[in-house]
């Protein structure tokens, strides 16, 4: 057994000492988007700090815990808070919670984040369905000995974001009369925001929104064969577009302001998954 898999099994055992809940769907709630977890019928909560070998988030607004419960009929596990590479964690550590949720039983991963809008038709507070991603600007989370128990050495990434799940999200947004853009998410390491020229370069590369998470989580999930979908909340226009400076509080506030609409879209989509 690989060291990484051994570590996962130890964490899984710690989870199983607290709950035997088997989720169908895993959600990662990005900054300012944690309110969804408060609205599910909670069965159990486990702070990441109680799990051996687990990366623990240090950023304000990312209080880290798993929340297990029911959203209607659906059994979900939410990650309220995630760790980021900029905290000093290796990409392989950052994706450990994703792999653990897979081992708990989750077959679907719903990723969310706050991101800066690169596409100039976006506006702060809009939602973007993640259709694809650019991840090669950060280190691949699968670097290191392959965890054979999870997936193959060279997993295909032709279509990371599941077409059927994405279509459900599109349909639900239409039913709710909720504006939903589509685009390509670019992950950078952070923690500094981008320069104006970074943003211009990312636009030329085909990016629609930029953030500091998500893409490596999607890679780890696809490696394990999970079906993946995702939504970005555009909390601000990326650097250089409006001429305004970026700050974390503004980003958080903007994400908070759409949290209700976001929650309704996530809830309706999950019910239809
Ligand atoms: N850049 C990177 N990450 C972000 C941004 C941004 O503009 N907004 C929210 N997360």
Secondary structure blueprint with pairings:
Blueprint lengths: L2 H16 L6 E5 L5 H4 L2 E7 L17 E7 L2 E7 L10 H4 L1 H9 L3 E10 L8 E9 L28 H13 L4 E8 L8 H10 L3 E3 L3 H9 L3 E11 L10 H10 L1 H14 L1
What are the key terms here?
273 residues; alpha/beta; Rossmann fold; 5-stranded mixed barrel; 9 helices; 33% helix; globular; binds hypoxanthine
What is the domain total for the residues?
Answer: 1
The CATH homologous superfamily corresponds to Nucleoside phosphorylase domain
Low-pLDDT residue intervals, each spanning 5 or more residues: none
Category by helix and strand content: alpha/beta
Tell me the Rg in angstroms. Answer: 17 Å
The total of helices stands at 9
- Average pLDDT number: 93
Distinct small-molecule ligands in the complex: hypoxanthine
Shape: globular
**Major beta sheet, strand line-up:** 5-8-7-6-9
CATH architecture: 3-Layer(aba) Sandwich
Can you count the beta strands?
Answer: 9
> What series of H and E elements makes up the topology?
HEHEEEHHEEHEHEHEHH
Largest sheet at a glance?
5 strands, mixed, barrel
Span between N and C termini? 34 Å
Give the C-level CATH assignment.
Answer: Alpha Beta
Proportion of residues in helical segments: 25-40%
């Amino acid at each position: 057994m690989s060291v990484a898999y051994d570590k996962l099994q130890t964490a899984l055992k710690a989870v199983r000492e607290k709950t035997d809940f088997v989720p169908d769907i895993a959600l990662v709630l990005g900054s300012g988007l944690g309110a969804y977890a408060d609205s599910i019928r909670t069965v159990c909560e486990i702070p990441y700090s109680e799990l051996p070998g687990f990366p623990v988030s240090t950023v304000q607004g990312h209080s880290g815990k798993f929340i297990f419960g029911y959203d209607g009929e659906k059994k979900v596990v939410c990650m309220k808070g995630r760790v980021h590479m900029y905290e000093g964690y290796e990409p392989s550590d950052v994706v450990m919670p994703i792999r653990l949720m897979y081992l708990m039983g989750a077959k679907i991963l719903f990723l969310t984040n706050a991101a800066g809008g690169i596409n100039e038709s976006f506006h702060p507070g809009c939602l973007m369905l993640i259709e694809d991603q650019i991840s090669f600007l950060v280190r691949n989370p699968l670097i290191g000995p392959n965890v054979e128990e999870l997936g193959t050495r060279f997993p295909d990434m032709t279509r990371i974001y599941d077409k059927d799940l994405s279509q459900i999200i599109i349909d639900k947004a239409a039913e709710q009369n909720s504006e939903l853009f589509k685009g390509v998410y670019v992950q950078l390491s952070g923690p500094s925001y981008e320069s104006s020229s970074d943003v211009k370069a990312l636009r030329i590369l085909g990016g629609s929104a930029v953030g500091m998470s998500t893409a490596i989580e999607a890679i780890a999930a696809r490696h394990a064969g999970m079906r993946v979908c995702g939504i970005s909340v555009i909390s601000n226009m990326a650097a250089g577009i409006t001429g305004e400076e970026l700050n974390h509080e503004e980003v958080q506030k903007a994400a908070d302001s759409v949290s209700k609409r976001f929650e309704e879209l996530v809830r309706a989509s999950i019910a239809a998954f």
